[in-house]
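Hi R.,

Here's the chain you asked about this morning:
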Amino acid sequence: MSIASALQQLRGRVAIVTGASSGLGRATAIALAAEGVRIVATGRDASRLASLVEEIKGAGEACVAVRGDAALAETAEEVLRTALETYQQVDVLVNNAGQGNYKSLVETTPEDFDELMNSNMRSTFLFSRAVAPQFMAQRSGTLVFVSSVAGLAGAPNEAVYSATKFAQVGFAQSVDEELRPYGIKICTVCPGGIKSRFAVGRGRNAEDVATSSMMEAAEVADAIVFACAQPKNVRVPQMIVRHMGTPRPKA
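And the predicted structure, written out as tokens:
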């Protein structure tokens, strides 16, 4: 099957995208919508969500938004309910919501730890738990976990952030073993740096991000679309997506 044919099969599907207010989440919602996927976007910024809905609808595609904190169970439940009431189905969940905070170990507070774990891992757990019964009942569905290369190898000043991303990778691997018998696909995406507001003011600054070789959010979003477009019997368990500026390993 060609990529073009695979993309055509996405039309009419329904995807929930968390953390869709900006950055990779917004880009993913737009990229999926461009292939005819009906979007349920969620995030904490009401005005940015409204802008996203307007852009997608302006392009002739379908999108609704639910404002809420992805680390709250009631948000996951409301988003799922909205998807089923609006579109009567759910086919894809993109667990993208998350935060970054780059600090040394001794500078990281217990509050920092809780915030990152809740934003990155708790949100992943809650939305996956909410959507899994629907996927199991229909014996199909794609769960995408947006982790990071920091979930594959630790780095200085990223101990807690990295821990949350390693947790997502392990969580996804276990869920894959549990849900694959129901025809459910699991894909963990581990991107390198992305040009976005992510972690600006929390270990990154806007100028460094803008002038870096980091990827555009839309470029990584295309990789997520690719994973979602695979034929029924094909899955992409894990993807590493990196920019060309990544240093080559030393011999």
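The longest helix spans residues 110-138.

Let me know if you need anything else.
M.
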